[in-house]
């Protein structure tokens, strides 16, 4: 994440790891100044979520962005929206 953040603003870190490994990536997201963390369907780490909230990140847990994107008015991704 640090190498990406050195060249780009990071809006969201999408975490698709086992729940017991998610905290490390949440902490990295905090460290690079990401705006939000999204823990995928089945990924829950309440303590890591609290750390992210305390660092003023938006937090989504146990949810698949592909499933909720249409309800949020998001039709992407497209070739310009992802690295």
Major beta sheet, specifics? 3 strands, parallel
Q: DSSP strand (E) fraction?
A: 5-15%
Tally of helical segments: 4
Global geometry: globular
Give average pLDDT, whole number. 90
Rg calc: 13 Å
Task: Describe this entry's structure for a reader.
Helix 2 (19-32) runs parallel beside helix 3 (46-54). Helix 3 (46-54) links the parallel strand 2 and strand 3. Helix content is 37%, strand content 13%. It has a three-stranded parallel β-sheet, covered by helices on one side. It has helices spanning 2-5, 19-32, 46-54, 65-68, and strands at residues 12-15, 36-39, 58-60. The chain is α/β, with parallel strands linked by helices and 83 residues long.
List the helices and strands and how they pair.
Layout: H1 2-5, E1 12-15, H2 19-32, E2 36-39, H3 46-54, E3 58-60, H4 65-68
Parallel strand pairs: 1-2, 2-3
Helix pairs in contact: 2-3
Write a brief caption for the model:
This protein has helices at residues 2-5, 19-32, 46-54, 65-68, and strands spanning 12-15, 36-39, 58-60. It is of the alpha/beta class and 83 residues long.
Sum up the structure in keywords.
3 strands, 83 residues, 4 helices, alpha/beta
């Amino acid at each position: 994440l640090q190498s990406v953040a050195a060249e780009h603003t990071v809006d969201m870190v999408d975490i698709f790891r086992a729940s017991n490994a998610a905290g490390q990536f949440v902490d990295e997201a905090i460290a690079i100044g990401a705006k939000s963390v999204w823990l995928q369907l089945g990924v829950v780490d309440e303590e890591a979520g609290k750390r992210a909230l305390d660092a003023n990140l938006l937090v989504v847990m146990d949810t698949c962005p592909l499933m909720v994107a249409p309800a949020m008015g998001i039709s992407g991704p497209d070739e310009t929206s992802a690295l």
